[in-house]
Amino acid sequence: MTRPILSRVVFSALRVSVVVVATCATHDKLLSAQSFATADSIVESGIRRGIYPGAVLVIGARDGVLHARGFGHFEWNAGPRPSPDSTLWDLASLTKVVGTTGAIMRLVETRRIELDAPVSRYLPRFTGPGKDRVTVRMLLNHTSGLRSYLPFFQLTRTRDSAIVLLYREPLRRKPGVSPEYSDLNFLLLGLMVEQVTGEPLDRYVTRAVLEPAGLAHTTYRPADSLRQRTAPTGRYRGKPVCCEVNDQNAVRMGGVAGHAGLFSTGSDLARFARMWLTGGAIDGKRVFEATTLQTFLAPGGGAGDRLLGWERPDPDNRDDSAYGHLLSPGAYGHTGWTGTLMWIDPARDLFLVLLTNRAYDPKVGRSIRALRGVRSALADEVVRAAGKPRASRGAR
Fold it and tell me: pTM value?
């Protein structure tokens, strides 16, 4: 799938108009607008193929943004052109790393949660055969033994009944042995944050993560006043749906959940990625301790390619990977069902944010697979355009 995309975009690259937002002086060479022309064309190919109507792309390094651009429209050939600075996107599972993982990091830093403590210490209702051996760490790296998914929105009618069913769900595998990516793990982590802090999840994430990191446009349940700049992710009775989380299990939880619910802009996510590249600081302000980030990026146990919250690109994946095939071994990232992607490569001092509304009325079958091919080609092209890896410096 990658080769056809690249063959088309090479011929159209010279026709692309590109805007460079900033150039980082720390890079070995200045990156011109033309450097990312092919990357832009790859993103545009997804619109031409009917995968998503709109997108934003942000590429940068620890010192700032190298390239940012919006593509297409909110709807197919209608609505405003997306903006990296102002358009809000349903992040889907990027909520796991930006919101929930960030909240757990803060609680670990303040010693209110221990990673290797049993989940039942913080959630006494989490009981059943083998569950006493499930730790907080196992929820974060998806080795808890829980199944990957359960349609709570179909099986229950209220948030409380969904929580009851979540606690009743048995383990499917021995804890700590092998990873299976699961929304259930992060639903439990969201409940844990609420139990430990005594605050609703959205309030604590905003106070403890989003505000310290300066993510001023990132929010759960966007207000109606933000409707004009929120990309729709679905259709209902022929009308676009926006400002409502696409994930129906998150809807059942009231629009705020550990696995989904956050909306954000490309610029805010770029700021978040920069914070990770600098070891927990952003624009001279420390948000997390560097040791906290190191802990959450340390592989271990039977987690495979899973870190704490994040995932690592699989070097043995010969299919179209969301991360391509050229990232450094220490790179990490996450994707989202609505068509979102963020990866960070410390060895290259490089990050990429791609936000789309793939979930909104795609015109191609198996659109999530088609999107995977676009993201794979895009990741490899951005690495090529950015140049050779650079030695990572310490946090500032």
Answer: 0.90
